[in-house]
Amino acid sequence: MMPMDSKDVRNNGTMPQLDNAETPEDLEKALSDEKKKCAEYLASWQRAQADFVNFKRRTEQERQDFNNYANANLILGILPVLDDLEMALKAVPPQYAGDDWVEGVRLIERKFRTSLEGQGVKPIKALGEHFDPHLHEALRQTRGKEGIILEEFQKGYMLHDKLLRPARVVVGTGEEDIKEEE
Q1: What is the pLDDT of residue 16?
Q2: How far is CA 177 from CA 31, 128, 141, 169, 174, in A?
Q3: What is the pLDDT of residue 165?
Q4: Domain limits at 129?
Q5: CATH code of residue 130
Q6: DSSP of 65-80
Q7: CB of 80 within 8 A of CB of 112?
């Protein structure tokens, strides 16, 4: 076995071997090369760290979006039930309006609406508003103020900040009703 000199013990294979015959210029060049490698490694590490931070942020946003919109299809499926409850309550004859069973249906409708609001479902305001093709679906036009929603056939809903179902509406054409003079 060969005896190790002190240079081999300190070096341990991690630093470049330098001969005693090298000039100061050679040493400066070797140091400069090592500094460049160090800077490249640091820049590479910083890019990897930034990529990881961006990846974490993106996956967290995707998880949040998934949680917010995972129930969208289920909610779309039960909105017609809410529509039917609202129509049933509007159609109650005046002589039955104060009956206990009507109040019970009204409470069910209110509880149902509150549950949906708790999930982030909000109705879209339509009547009297300007028509917005991103929120409303025009079923027809009629005489009235131009671009103003005059009638709502079906309520529209948003889920958080995403359109769940557009409001189905009647929009004014801009032709005012002609009133006969007496």
Answers
A1: 58
A2: 89, 16, 13, 19, 9
A3: 95
A4: 121-177
A5: 2.30.22.10
A6: HHHHHTTHHHHHHHHH
A7: no
> What is the rounded CA–CA span in Å between residue 92 and residue 111?
19
Amino acid at 177: D
Query: Which pLDDT belongs to residue 182?
Result: 39
Is the separation of the CB atoms in 157 and 125 below 8 Å? no
Q: How far is Cα 23 from Cα 83, in angstroms, rounded to an integer?
A: 89
Beta bridge partners, 49, equal none
Q: Which two tokens stand for residue 75?
A: 């909610």
- For residues 82 and 129, membership in a common domain is answered with no
Count of structural domains, the chain: 3
- 10-residue mean pLDDT profile of the chain (182 residues): values are 50 56 84 93 95 95 87 91 93 91 94 94 94 94 92 94 94 72 40
> Contact 133/174 with Cβ under 8 angstroms?
no
**Token pair for 160:** 């958080």
Q: In this structure, what token pair is assigned to residue 135?
A: 């929120």
Note the pTM of the prediction, 2 decimals. Answer: 0.64
Q: 15 in a domain, yes or no?
A: no
**Contact assessment for residue 167 and residue 154, using Cβ atoms and an 8 Å cutoff:** yes
Q: In this predicted structure, what is the pLDDT of residue 68?
A: 81
